[in-house]
Amino acid sequence: MKKVVFFLSVLFLSFGCEKAPISKAIKVANANELSESIANAQPGDEIVLANGVWRDVEIKFSAKGTEDWPIVLKAETEGGVFIEGVSSLELSGEYLEVEGLFFRNGHSPKSNVIAFRTSEKEVANHCSVSNCVILDFNNLNRDDDNLWVQFYGKNNTLSHCYLAGKTNGGPTVRVDLKGNQSIRNYHQIINNHFGPRPRKGGARGETIQLGSSFTSMSPSNTTIANNLFEACNGEVEIISSKTNFNIIKNNVFYKSEGSVVTRHGNYCLIDGNYFIGDGENENFGGIRIVNTGHWITNNLFYNLKGKNFRSPLAIMNGIPKSPLNRYNQVTDVVVAYNTYVNSNAPWQFGVGTNIDQADVLPKSEIRSARPLRTEVVNNVIYNEVGDPNPIIEHDKADGVTFASNIIDNNDVLFAKRDGLDSKTLSLTSIGEDLSVPLLGFEDVEIYSGFDFETITKDILGNPRSKSNQIGAFLNSETIDLDLLDKTKYGANWYSNVVEVKEPTTHSVTNEAELVSKLKAAENNDIIELKDGVFAVSESLIISKPIVIQSKGKTEIVYNGPANTPAFALHPYGKLKLKNIKLKGTNTQFAFASLKENMFNHFGLEVSDSEISHFNYALKVYKQSFAEEITFTNTSISNCENGLELSEETNDRGDYNTEYLTVNNCSFNAVKSNVIDYYRGGYDESTIGGNLLVLNSIFTNCGANEKGRMLLNHRGIVNVTISNNTFKDNNVDFVAILWGAKNNNASENSITNSGQIKTEQNLKLKLMY
Amino acid sequence: MKKVVFFLSVLFLSFGCEKAPISKAIKVANANELSESIANAQPGDEIVLANGVWRDVEIKFSAKGTEDWPIVLKAETEGGVFIEGVSSLELSGEYLEVEGLFFRNGHSPKSNVIAFRTSEKEVANHCSVSNCVILDFNNLNRDDDNLWVQFYGKNNTLSHCYLAGKTNGGPTVRVDLKGNQSIRNYHQIINNHFGPRPRKGGARGETIQLGSSFTSMSPSNTTIANNLFEACNGEVEIISSKTNFNIIKNNVFYKSEGSVVTRHGNYCLIDGNYFIGDGENENFGGIRIVNTGHWITNNLFYNLKGKNFRSPLAIMNGIPKSPLNRYNQVTDVVVAYNTYVNSNAPWQFGVGTNIDQADVLPKSEIRSARPLRTEVVNNVIYNEVGDPNPIIEHDKADGVTFASNIIDNNDVLFAKRDGLDSKTLSLTSIGEDLSVPLLGFEDVEIYSGFDFETITKDILGNPRSKSNQIGAFLNSETIDLDLLDKTKYGANWYSNVVEVKEPTTHSVTNEAELVSKLKAAENNDIIELKDGVFAVSESLIISKPIVIQSKGKTEIVYNGPANTPAFALHPYGKLKLKNIKLKGTNTQFAFASLKENMFNHFGLEVSDSEISHFNYALKVYKQSFAEEITFTNTSISNCENGLELSEETNDRGDYNTEYLTVNNCSFNAVKSNVIDYYRGGYDESTIGGNLLVLNSIFTNCGANEKGRMLLNHRGIVNVTISNNTFKDNNVDFVAILWGAKNNNASENSITNSGQIKTEQNLKLKLMY
Question: What mean pLDDT value characterizes chain B?
Fold first, then answer.
């Protein structure tokens, strides 16, 4: 049934344009009504989706509105329409507006959830999606890449939306430029809240990508402005600008593990943004520059500790005459009027240089072309704790002009450089947890480069025309920013702020109770096992954050079928197991992910426990990912295999966990794959995989190890093996370290267990 | 002495702007006065150079005019000021205008004759050079590359100038984009006459180059409009667009041996140009396309016979993920509303493909990426003589859309293709020697691609908004173009039209007279030697076009010093020697260029003559160049060496003559270097070097030949060895042909002279 309500067009909205059409509000309750109303839609019409769940609906919103009389497709109540199941939205035509939808509990049947086209040549122009939410709308398998929002056409807008939780491969949002229908697009990505995007475990986890290397010569003119990026940790690039003339302006990057990167394309303006870290996490980055003509102005870098690729300003070395998909030389870049507060070594040059590998890599891989005609001027640095090296030259910065820069290094000596002078400054509070230098450099003569007259405003939009000064902020009476007020970003009906609930502890006395309470428990609840022995014959399903513990080291004996896990780690399943003795009958797994459909991450933290008599202590299947897997004060003994995370063999840079930590554990009589953690594929900017093996003892392990290696972490970038004892393990190698990367071993005692070897350069398949 | 004339400012020119300054006209007579007046110049001033020759003057015109009150530097009389000797002009500042100068009889001491900057950061903005001439202002040595006009800064103009005769390396005009001071420059190169630029003999002979591969990512926005390009034969590229957003509009390319090439950079608009050939010369090209987003609209291609790289429309194959200085794939190109008249195989795709060499070349050299998303639509082809293959696919054109194209092939069958339909058309005269189809396709439905609404006009500027049709021309009542009226282009005081004078014949009876008459003779005169023997002891200087002949095969015996030539070929020296017996005493050269300072080309045509007893019959030194060297009906005997043109060993693609022709000649007892003609360096787009050896006899030659080869033409692209007799020459090879290029041998008789071998791929040094 369709309700049609005629209403009088609001005439005063359309002065000076075509005669107001007779507009209708059409309420639709199912997919058929929806497509019929779209087919008949006229300029000014409003198609209203009835509240409730719309399951398995593929919306093709193809129609022609006008500038004054757009066609609107909206939820009956903002946030009251839930798009679930296997669903998607495509738009094409002109002047269409979509509002108030909530995409959740499902995934798209297409290569995108929302697409601004309905076919290759039928694209959207002047269309918008606003006030919508896409939450965890992930494909079932993480190798099944897709986009959540894919722009085509021109002059389209994504505004006031909340997008979070993408775990599968592919950027959250991508602007596509193939074809003249999609260049000079002037798309707007504004006022959105990009909520947490978990670590992807490899590449292809950008939050926004503007084009690709194949369209890197095209003018895009996309604007990304006034968005909040919160914990966008997918990969090293939060925004990957790959086309020309993009504008990234007035955004807040809050505790996001990555950088804004001008990866390809040229003449990007990065102006007035806030990059805010916590003063500790070295993964929070700033801006990384490749290519020509970018302007980085009026930005604040705050409490950032990223290094090298992730430093506040990372200017890369290029490859001379670079191939299209590699690294063009940096030229004609302007870095002016920025402020750096407590951000270590903010200016790094020649990042990515590998001239020392000129003998082992082909010439077309050597990043030896230093930045040219680049200006770093009119910037202010303040370090509460002095930084001996505010400028780091991985390669010489001889093509860079420094001028009119000021540093307060709190009396700590630093490498002097023309154009960077000391001054004593003070901080002024400009909002909660935000204090910056506003004063004390009024007398510094401003460097004026070519076209600097186009830098007309400061980070707050105040005009620089009178009483201009260096740094991102002009001095003004009172500034009270509330950058992290989340109501300013995203959908007005949705908040990602979760009230912390006190966890409930459920006492459990037998197996049946364990199964039922586990099912009934809420997120983060605690299952407390009574003392004694629990005989479990079916896998315990972990599909939420949960704690399972006991006081007296309760024993769980798992006697289920061979090659099934005692604890089955499902999507969202984050298990903390404490003080448990976990025993199998030699054929099962202690912990395992699902074999497929791991559409969301799992997690595992085992402490003060004993694991024995399993086929595998841990078996992580392909396309499963945990941000962290931790074993502490735990013994693993008498198992055929230990911790197995080695199925990500597509060599595209993927791996199964970001952090695998083994601390103060003992491994005894684990016959193969004691630790087997794999990452494949060569790509200089994938930084991930972290293995920490600390204070642990390995004895009588590796007896059946075909690879003759105890700890196999081939391709993992960060490895620390420290303060361990290896005794009587029948292998040739404890480990082989990757010398070119961050692999370290120290303070280990090795007896009758082979050796630790370093291989400088691994042969890996190129990822690009 | 300086004359200062105050005059009242013309107020009506400056309404709405600043108060009119007190402007002066300042006449200057020498360099000191000039630089003083420049130093003191104020907005509105006119600095007037006194008529006459200004020798060895380096003008630095650095000043600041205003939009309404520019500062002018002009000749007292247009064309009356001759800049000669070692001289140059540099401009920097704003709103400067240079007018009426004639650069001749000299060269620049700098890397350019006219530069729009005075130092790296002191550039010109809003400055112009107009109504000037640069003629033969060549560096002394052709390897000493330079530019004649080099643009820097922004918004500068070269207009109404005549430039011709550049022989040394380097484009005639280049726009430089390094640095933010020179991007988005909106320079104008308009209404100029680019007169003959002789064949360069290798690369680096462009008439206009817009940027370089190193700045190919930068927006240039340069306009080249309403110019006449006449015999711009320097190399395969007349205009080489290497940056973005350039406009090439309404130019006439008349009998110019080259193409307009979008070599690097993207989004070039090539609109409304006339490409006019002679229906025979295969070197007259059209438009060659590399890279992305170019629009080729409203052009006329007339009587062009160029093939492959030089075809009317050559769409190249790219290299996948090409290095910066190689070939990007063609994508998103529009070829619409063009007209082709009697231009063979006008559309060629996959030009430059070398996938058949995938086994012998590195992957980064293989041009296998075919054009994508390219549209060839709304075009008209008329062929008086039907063309069986109007479309040639060197590689598949499967990424190209053809639509709404019409061909009149005069009933000759051609390979059918969707989007190219037959129609019977007629030609309408639109001016002298110019007839095009205007009618008969009104009913063809026009294809409308993305943004096609921006094609608002036809080639003549008529609006397409009503009664639009395909092809370059809208139908209108009478069109009478006078494209070749040279008064419309270049300096208004200069014409390159030379009246043909009847040559004078000077009879000469003795050596002294020969020397004096040779000196006194005018261009193209004839020196007629009486019968008998002329004993010549000093080189005869050939420094102009001249004919030396006799009736009865007069003998010239040259007994000058060893290793000096009987005929010294100086710059401009073009000798036709007819019916002469030329003898040395075994140590001299019959003909030789200068060892250095060959700042202009020479030429040599020997017929019906006998040359004997020389060390070298012909010795061409490095950096000397002749467009043509021809021997006909001539014997060369008893010489240590024959024709030696092998000093261009820099392997940058250079060679000493465009055409070396030997027809109906005999070579006997020439001991080494019978023919030695070299070109080095690999670059797929250098097309030159032509050797023709026809109907000739070689006997008892090569006795001392170390290379064991009679005809050595290594690296020469076009070689024909045909209908010759080789007998009793003590060599292993008559010649080694380059199989991959246009080298042919046929109908030769070889006895006791080794063999002719073909080597498919020569190993050559890469030029890029």
Answer: 95
Dist CA B746 CA B731 (whole Å): 19
Q: CA-CA distance, A113 to A146, in Å (whole number)? A: 8
- Taking CB atoms and an 8 Å limit, are B324 and A325 in contact across chains? no
Alpha carbons B530 and B554: distance in angstroms, whole number? 7
**Is B39 strand, coil or helix?**
helix
Q: Is A750 exposed, middle or buried (0-12, 13-18, 19+ CB in 10 A)?
A: middle
* pLDDT tens digits, one per residue of B466-505: 889 999 999 988 899 999 999 999 999 999 998 889 999 9
Query: Do residues B291 and B328 make contact, with C-beta atoms less than 8 angstroms apart?
Result: yes
Kindly report the number of other CB atoms within 10 A of residue B257's CB atom.
26
Q: B154: which strand partners?
A: B125
pTM of the model: 0.94
For domain B3-9+23-482, give the CATH number.
2.160.20.10
All residues at 6 or more sequence positions from A257 whose CB lies less than 8 Å from its CB, including other chains: A199, A231, A232, A233, A281, A283, A284, A285
CB contact under 8 A, B449 and A334: no
Nearest by CB to residue A323, choosing from B181, B322, B449, is: B322
- In the DSSP assignment, the letter for residue B323 is B
**Closest residue of chain A to B214, computed from CA coordinates:** A321
Q: Are strands A101-107 and A128-130 parallel, antiparallel or unpaired?
A: unpaired
Across A154-163, B355-364, B647-656, B681-690, which has the greatest mean pLDDT?
A: A154-163
B337: Cβ contacts below 8 Å, ≥ 6 apart: B297, B298, B378, B379, B455, B458, B470, B471, B472
Interval A213-240: pLDDT, tens:
999 999 999 999 999 999 999 999 999 9
- Determine the distance in angstroms separating the CA of B682 from the nearest CA of chain A, rounded to an integer: 18
Inter-chain CB proximity B178 and A449 less than 8 Å: no
User: What's the mean pLDDT in B223-246?
Assistant: 98
Residue numbers in A near B265 (CB within 8 A)? 217
B537 in Cβ contact with B561 (< 8 Å): no
**Chain B residue numbers touching A217 (CB-CB < 8 A):** 217, 244, 265-266, 291-293, 328
Q: pLDDT of B729-745, one tens digit each?
A: 999 999 999 998 999 99
CA neighbor of B304 nearest in space, from B256, B247, B243:
B256
Contact B304, B275 (CB under 8 A): yes
Partner-chain residue, chosen from A267, A321, A332, that has the shortest CB–CB distance to B179 = A332
Q: How far apart are CA A647 and CA A96, in angstroms?
A: 45
Chain A residues bordering chain B (beta-carbon distance below 8 Å): 178-181, 183, 213-215, 217-219, 244, 265-267, 291-293, 321-326, 328, 331-332, 334, 364, 373, 449-451
CB pairs A-B closer than 8 Å: 84
Q: What's the one-letter identity of residue A216?
A: S
Side-chain-facing half-sphere of B239: CA atoms under 13 Å: 31
Interface of B with A (CB under 8 A): 178-181, 183, 213-215, 217-219, 244, 265-267, 291-293, 321-326, 328, 331-332, 334, 364, 373, 449-451
Has residue B18 got a pLDDT over 80?
A: no
Reduced to 3 states, what is the DSSP secondary structure of residue B454?
helix
Chain A, nearest residue to B265 by Cα: A217
Q: What is the DSSP string of A689-738?
A: -EEEEES-EEES--TT-TT-BSEE-TT-SEEEEES-EEES---SEEEEEE
DSSP classification of residue B233: -
Sequence spans of domains, chain A:
283-481, 505-628, 646-768
Among the residue ranges A146-150, A411-415, A696-700, B632-636, the one predicted with the least confidence is: A411-415
Q: Do B180 and A291 touch (CB under 8 A)?
A: no
